[in-house]
Amino acid sequence: MAHPDTLRELLTRYEALRARPERRQELEDVSYTLCVSTGTRDIEDALRAARAHIADAYAA
């Protein structure tokens, strides 16, 4: 699993790109990176895993 700060950056980029349909390829790239970084195959699973990992890391 990637470092929480890296995941936070990826989540921020993902959210920003979702609002920009003309940047579809970048969104696909960030989605792929999130999946790889969280060991998942689906972006929804990746988002959940990244958010949970970030929350766990900063709760400790």
Describe it for me?
Pfam families: DUF5133 (PF17196). It comes from Streptomyces oryzae. This is DUF5133 domain-containing protein. The chain has 60 residues and is mainly alpha-helical. It has three helices and no strands. Helix 1 (4-18) runs antiparallel to helix 2 (24-38). The longest helix is centred in the C-terminal third of the chain and has 17 residues, at 43-59. It is globular. 13% of the residues are buried. The model has no long low-confidence stretch (mean pLDDT 95).
The residue ranges in which pLDDT falls below 50 over 5 or more consecutive positions are none
Shape field: globular
Count of helical regions: 3
Cα-to-Cα separation, first versus last residue: 17 Å
- Which range does the strand content fall in? under 5%
| Radius of gyration over C-alpha positions, nearest whole angstrom | 11 Å
- As for the number of domains, it is 1
Q: Oligomeric state of the chains?
A: single chain
Helicity level: over 70%
- Please trace the helix and strand order, writing H or E for each element: HHH
Averaged pLDDT: 95
Structural class by helix and strand composition: mainly alpha
Task: Count the E strands.
Answer: 0
Largest sheet: none
InterPro entries: DUF5133 (IPR033457)
Protein name: DUF5133 domain-containing protein
